[in-house]
C-alpha cells in the first residue's frame, strides 16, 4: 500500500458559491468559469500521482467530479484550520505516513512540485509551498501536527511566518518549495 496521501481541498463547483472575493469585481459567472479551470488544472496535475488521493469537498461528495481514484470526503470543522487539521488527522488514521494538502487556487501547481513535496518529507518534518500573498499553497507533514492549524487567523500576509515560527518552536525541521501565486482577487488574476 502506498503510504503517501494527497489531500485536495475544493469547493463544490456551484455558481455563486466559489471565488467570492474574485466575483465581487468580475462577476459570479466569470469567477465560476475561472474556478472550474483551476479545478480542472488540479485534477490534470494530480490524476497520475502514485499516492492515495483524497478530495475534501465543502458540501457533499460528487460522483461527476474527478475520477474514482480520488477518495471523496466532506470537510468538517468551524474554520479552515480545523478543517485542515481534521483532514490530515483522518489520512494518518487511514495508515498514511506522509500527508500533503493543497487547495485549488494555484494555477502553476504541478505534479513535479507535489512529488518534490513528498520526497522532501523523507528529510524534513514539514514542507510548505509559500504563496506570494504571505500564506501557503501547500503544507505537508510526516506526522499529525495540529498546533500548526489551531488559533490561526487565516487569509492574511502573516500565515506563513507564523507557521514557520510554530514549526521552529516544536523543534521540527521544514523545507520551503518554490513560491507561487494563488488567485483570490482580480489583481491576482491580472498578475497571473
Strand order, main sheet: write it out: 3-2-1-4-6-5-7
The share of residues in extended strands comes to 15-25%
Based on CA inertia axes, which overall geometry fits?
globular
Domain module tally: 1
Listing every helix as H and every strand as E from the N terminus to the C terminus, the arrangement reads EHHEEHEHEEHEH
Q: Briefly note the structural class of the backbone.
A: alpha/beta
CATH class: Alpha Beta
Radius of gyration: 16 Å
Going by CATH, the homologous superfamily would be Spore Coat Polysaccharide Biosynthesis Protein SpsA, Chain A
- Count up the helices: 6
| Major beta sheet summary | 7 strands, mixed
Tell me briefly what this model is.
With 192 residues, this protein is α/β, with parallel strands linked by helices. 35% of the residues lie in helices and 19% in strands.
Fold and architecture overview:
This protein has a seven-stranded mixed beta sheet, with helices on both faces. The longest helix has 19 residues, at 28-46. The protein contains six helices and seven strands. The mean pLDDT is 94. The radius of gyration is 16 Å and the shape is globular. The protein is of the alpha/beta class. α1 crosses α2. 35% of the residues lie in helices and 19% in strands. The chain has one domain: Spore Coat Polysaccharide Biosynthesis Protein SpsA, Chain A (Alpha-Beta Complex).
Amino acid at each position: 500500500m502506498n503510504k503517501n496521501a494527497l489531500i485536495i481541498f475544493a469547493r463544490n463547483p456551484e455558481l455563486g458559491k466559489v471565488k467570492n472575493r474574485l466575483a465581487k469585481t468580475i462577476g459570479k459567472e466569470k469567477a465560476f468559469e475561472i474556478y472550474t479551470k483551476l479545478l480542472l488544472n488540479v485534477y490534470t496535475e494530480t490524476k497520475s500521482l502514485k499516492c492515495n488521493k483524497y478530495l475534501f469537498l465543502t458540501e457533499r461528495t460528487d460522483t461527476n467530479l474527478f475520477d474514482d481514484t480520488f477518495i471523496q470526503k466532506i470537510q468538517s470543522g468551524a474554520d479552515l484550520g480545523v478543517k485542515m487539521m481534521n483532514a490530515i488527522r483522518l489520512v494518518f488514521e487511514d495508515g498514511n505516513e506522509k500527508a500533503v494538502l493543497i487547495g485549488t487556487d494555484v494555477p502553476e501547481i504541478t505534479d513535479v512540485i507535489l512529488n518534490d513535496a513528498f520526497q522532501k518529507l523523507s528529510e524534513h518534518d514539514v514542507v510548505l509551498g509559500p504563496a506570494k500573498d504571505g500564506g501557503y499553497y501547500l503544507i505537508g507533514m510526516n506526522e499529525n501536527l495540529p498546533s500548526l492549524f489551531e488559533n490561526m487567523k487565516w487569509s492574511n500576509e502573516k500565515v506563513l511566518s507564523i507557521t514557520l515560527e510554530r514549526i521552529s518552536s516544536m523543534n521540527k525541521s521544514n523545507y520551503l518549495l518554490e513560491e507561487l501565486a494563488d488567485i483570490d482577487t482580480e489583481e491576482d488574476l491580472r498578475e497571473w
